[in-house]
Amino acid sequence: MAKVVLVHPQIPPNTGNIARTCAATGTELHLVGPLGFEISDRYLKRAGLDYWPYVKLHNHQSWQEFFTLHQQLGGRLLGFTTSGRCSYLKLQYQPDDWLLFGSETKGLPPDILAICSETLYIPMSEPGVRSLNLSVSVSAGLFEARRQLGYLE
To answer: pTM of the full predicted structure?
Structure first.
């Protein structure tokens, strides 16, 4: 099943909401530091409610630490970004994909985008709106991957 990776998340409630979504779907959540908060942050815990025991959480101190794991396990790195090359709806997802999302303020760093197998964007009708909330973007990408892979039935 596809995995969610948050690279340098900054806002605890967003990460808590994403953790809750991952708990509900049985999806692994990988946090790549440095984080903009402590894992024990009360706002993070509050947003995740009492679902934390159900979260398959992996905390990586750095990108290199995460990337070493990725190289061992394999799979495509799919970077979600407002400047992506492909709509997230048009990609054919694979079970071993890693869905990468950057920080709320900066997105994914260019060096990480450069090594992604594909960069994806979420189409929006209003050109004046630059991006969606991180937790909304993760949900959209994750549920599309799950739909295509037959996990919603």
So the answer is: 0.94
